[in-house]
Amino acid sequence: MKNNSLFHLVAKAAIIVGLVAGLGSTSALAEKITVTDIAGRSVSLEKNPSKIVLGEGRMIYSIALLDRKNPFERVVGWKDDLIRFDPDHYRKYKAKFPAVDKIKNFGSPYSSEFSLEAVVASGAEVMILNLGKLLQAQESGLLEKLEKAGVAVLFVDFRQRPTQNTVPSLQLLGRVLDRREQADEFIDFYIQNMQTVLNRVEKIKESDRPVVFVERAAGYNPDKCCSTFGDANLGRLVDLAGGANWGSKKFSGHGGKVNPEAIFVDDPDVIIGTGANWAEANPATTAVLFGYEADDKMVQERLGNLAARKGWEELKAVKNGNFRSIYHQFYNSPYHFVALQTFAKWFYPDEFKDVEPEKTFTELHDRFLPIDYSGVFWGTLEK
C-alpha cells in the first residue's frame, strides 16, 4: 500500500513538473516585448518570431547580418525587388541556400497585387517595412489591416536617413529577432569604419572640398538624364566624405530631376554615377552593371559609354580622371560605410592612402555574411 501511495505521489509530481516545464517553454516561445520602431511607433510583438515578411527583398542585406547561418530561415514572403534589381546578389545567395526560390512573392504592399490573405495564411508574425513608405502604409489602410489580422509591423530605415537610422534599425532588429549580440558586433564594425573617415574629414576646410555630382541610376534608361540626390542618402555620404554634394544646394531632402545643361554650366569637379545589374529588369540599360558577377572590362566599357554622351566629354571630371561610378544598392543597405570610404579615397587619395575599401568590404563578408566577396562594386573611367 505504501509502495502504491509512493508511486502515485511520484506520478503526480512528474505530471506537475511536466506541466510547469511545458508552461515555461510556451512562455518562452511566446515572450512579448514592446519596442519603438524607426517611425516612433510603440509596437508589442512576440520576441524571436519564426515567420517574417519583408516589405522589400533587399532588406535581406540587413537580415543576413543577424541570421548569418541562414538569412532566409524565417522569411516566408517578400517583394521580388532583390531578384529583379540585384540578381547577382540573389544568385549568390541561391547558390548556397537553394530554398530561397521557394519564398513567396507577395508583391508591393502598397499595390493591388498585394494579398493580405496570403500573408495571414503564411503564418507571418511580423512584417518589416521601410520608413519611406510610412505615409503610404497609413493612407492605404495597410497598417490597420495587418494589425487587425495579428501581424505586427515594424519600420526600419536604411534609405531615407541611413547615416542616422542604420544603427537604431539594426538594434531594433537585433532585439526583435533575438540577435542582439550579432547586431552589436556589426554595429561596432560599422562605427569603426564610419569614424575612419569622419574623424579626418572634420579637418578639411569647406573651401577646399570638391564639388561632386551624383547621377542616380546613370544610364538605367538610356534616353533619360538625370536624377540626383539632395542632402540625404548618397548625397549625405558625399558631404560626410569631404565633398560638396552638388544636389544638396539644389534640392531639399532626397533629391530630384536635373537638366543636363545645369551640370554642364556648373562643371563639377567629380562625377559619380550609380549602377547595378539592371540588365534583366531593363535589357536596354546602359548602366554600369556592378555586383557579384561584374568584371573590370565591362565596367570600363559601360563607363566609357556614359562619358561619351553628348556634352559629357567636355566636362573636367571626364578629362581629369574623376568620372566614376559605384554600386547603386549601397544607397539602401547597412553596408554604405564602404561607399563612404570609397568616396573619401577618391576625393583625398593622399589623406586616405591607408584606407582600402575593398579590404573593408571583404572583411564585412568574411566576418558577418554567409557569402564570400566577388565581383566589382565601383570603378573609375581609365584615360
TrEMBL record:
InterPro entries: ABC_Transporter_SBP (IPR050902), ABC_transptr_periplasmic_BD (IPR002491). It holds the Pfam family Peripla_BP_2. It comes from the Bacteria. This is Iron complex transport system substrate-binding protein. It comes from Cohaesibacter gelatinilyticus. Residues 51-355 form the Fe/B12 periplasmic-binding domain.
